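Minutes, structural biology subgroup

Action item carried over from last meeting: produce the structure token record for Similar to SCARB1: Scavenger receptor class B member 1 (Homo sapiens) (Cotesia congregata). EB confirmed the sequence was re-checked against the source entry. Recorded below for completeness.
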Amino acid sequence: MKTSQQLQEFKKCLIIFMVGIICTILSCTIYALDPINIVFKWKLTMTPTSTVFLMWKKPPVDVFLKVYVFNITNAEAFLNNEEKLRVQEVGPYVYQEVLENTKIVWHDNGTITYIPKRTVIYRPDMSINDPKKDIVTVTNIPFLGISSALADAGFFVNFPLVQLTNLLDTKPIVNMTVYEYFWGYEDPLVRLASGIVPNFINFQKFGLLDRMYDEGDNLVNLNIQKNKNMSDENGRYLSIQNYNGSPGLAHWGYQEEEGNETIPGNTICNRIRGATEGTLFPSNLDKSAVFRVFRKAFCRALPIVFKNEVTTSSGLTGWEYTLSDNFLDPPDMNPENECYCRKMKKCLRKGLSDLTPCYYNIPAAVSLPHFLNADPSLLQDIEGLQPDREKHQTRVVLQPAIGIPIDVNSRIQTNLVMKKMTYNKRLEPFSNLAIPLFWNDLEIPSISPDLLMTMKLLLQIGPIVQTATICLLAIAGGTTFLLSLIGMLWILNQQTEQHSDERRDSVDLKIPLGYGQYTAIRILPAIKKITSKTDLFG
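Output recorded by EB:
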């Protein structure tokens, strides 16, 4: 009877032992395989059904364009050469930007092609006033732009233009609604000038935001093969390979290359291959990597560099990036900017970068808002500007593991660059001025609750649950293994006691003890003390 009971108890010990082994194996397997990382990679690999692809195709984030207009407050005194030009910031007027990547084609070489489509929706709830009702005093951009563009064209081009503007009584400073200033209005001078000098003036309607969002159908080729080497910008994951069939921008002097031929004029200044579109960045970011963000409205690729680590209001860890300090420096300070001087045939002052090819050949330039970090002379020429690093610096916070922007303020100002006005006396006060037109803040204030929950599951909750599971399985495995060992020793102790009793009852038989029984007799008294009061399998 005892033997049968001991056999049952031994089976229980064996089962507990196997449970311990299984728990230990599971713990080691989960630790080695890292299922969270496997799911992470699966979700962040571009495939037609992956999460990251759906996020890229139609980003589930709210993007707002906040626009601030520079209203002229002393037009008459300025035109009479009595005062410097004085401006006052008015805004914001807010539009929500919606992006969808369309006509997507997957290629066997690890790239996809697509056409990005952006639309804007006016947000009255976030705007200061109605842009269709607010009147501002601003420069007549077509008139001043045409005059500046033709300033070096000579007498025989400028004289008819001057006579024409005098005949039409075209004003250099005008009053119009904010909506007209943003989205354009027809001007008789523009229509006439486009017929007289079509090579210079190839438009009949001009609006600042209309120009930004008049992108047309642009075919983008994007690399979707993962490359851990982030220093290899050209082959970087989610980097642009070609834009409308070219890896560079012809309006900045890029020339098509054949084979491995290197053309001296082709530099990072006019090359967009390797730039990112700014919607998604590679996962597992490298702090030393410099990213160039390209959008047609920027007219160039803007370099951003790592600044520091931050914790967002949503509790996620982020890496803060900002525009590189020298991205608006002239070529003598930053040689990479040399090609931006070619269109205007001279380099602009520090803090300005030419936009002329992207603004109907009107001499325009990009800067930071209120000429932040620019040549001091730009501020001295205009009154009413107050640069503030906190308000006017670009700030991009990326989640480093996923590469998604979670907090963005991309701040850029557009300016009209005036050359020396020789042929039109009315425009002499504008000579050599960089006139601020407007600045905009492209903002992503937060990410959607669904996306936030997904990110927290992948980045915070998932790893904690996985680590806890590994620890619990390891503890359970070790505990059950130890209990099974103690149980087996207890059973062996019971068997030894039974044999001892039998030996005393039949001492004359002189039955020799086996090695295992002898060992148990020597080792198990201590175990007996522990187990005497408790039946492990009771």
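Discussion: The chain has a mean pLDDT of 83.
Next step: EB to file the record with the rest of the batch.
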